[in-house]
Each structure stands twice: as structure tokens, then as C-alpha cells.
Predict the structure of ArgG.
Amino acid sequence: MTKTARAPRQSAKVVQLRKGTTLEMVRLACPDATQATRISESFGLPVLDSDGIRDLHERLIVETATSLSEGLGERAMQIHLQRIVGAYVGSAHGAGQFYSRAVTEARDATAKAANDARDEDLDGPVGFDGAAQRKREFAADMALQSHALRMAAEGAIAAYEQVVGERWKPFERPIENPGNAVDRKAAALQMEALG
């Protein structure tokens, strides 16, 4: 049996990127102003000044950039602000994910408490909240926290656009593959040994 010769394949190097957290991801995870107000009113919590939080953070970053402008070049300013805005967005996203888990736990506890056949999920003694109520209140607190961080992130992004002059997008870091680096080093040593 004869083997047919095949043309050698050129392997294209594919660089995978670790996706950064986007503002859209934050908006999906964190309540908007309308929902935050509804939660505040339903649970007797303070109504947040969403626009005030956003505007304050926008001014804060613009003023910070202005004070740094003499010491930083254009590219250095962009990198610096990229990192700052990324931190705000990451923080808001983490809070939004935590809020989502708290809502799930509150829903589960509330559904279990509605079942009259389960003694362990019944409300506590008179004057004390039951477990389901505490979980709902905790979820409401997390809603306001994640909303406040969302507004801070939106303000930071607006400031980035104002200072840098382009829309902010998350930094996407290449996923490192340490195995390739070791293979290359081993190959280089082997080739060196061969002369």
C-alpha cells in the first residue's frame, strides 16, 4: 500500500483572549434606577440618588485625570483610566452576581415557607422575622448596593469617554499557556545540543 504525500499543514497560532467584564454585563446583573426605587419603597429602604452617584463619579475621574495630565502622556493616561474604569466595572459586576444569588436564595426560601407541610421553614416566634423574610431583606440590601456600584461604573465610563475621547471597552488579556513556553525552551535546548 502506498502512502500519498500530503502537503504539510501550517499551524496558525490562535491566541485566546480572556474576556473582560462589559458594561452590558453589569446592566444585566444589577438593578436599574426604576427597579432600585421600587425595591427601596417595598422594603422601607432609602431611595438612592442614582444620577447623583453617576455624576459624582464622572466628575471625580475627570478631575483626577486633569490633575494627572501634566505628569502622564496621552497613552499612559489611557492605560491608567482603563484600569480604574475596569475596577469599577468589575466591582459592580461582582456585586450584581452576588445580588442575583441572594435573590435566588430568597425565592427558594419564600417558596419553601409557603408550603404548610414544612415546619422547619415556618416563620419564627411573634416579633421575629422568619428565615425567608431575612433572605428577602438581604436581597433588597444587595440590590441597592449593586445598583449604587452600577451607577459609579457608568459614571467612570462616561469620564473615560470624556477624557480619552473614545468609548471604553474592557481589556482582553491573552490566556497564557505555560506548556508552550516549556516546549519551546526544551526544543531550543535540544537544538543547541545537536549543534
User: Anything to note?
Assistant: The chain has one domain: 18-170. Helices lie at 23-29, 33-43, 50-68, 74-113, 131-164, 178-194. DSSP finds six helices and two strands in the chain. The chain has a mean pLDDT of 82.
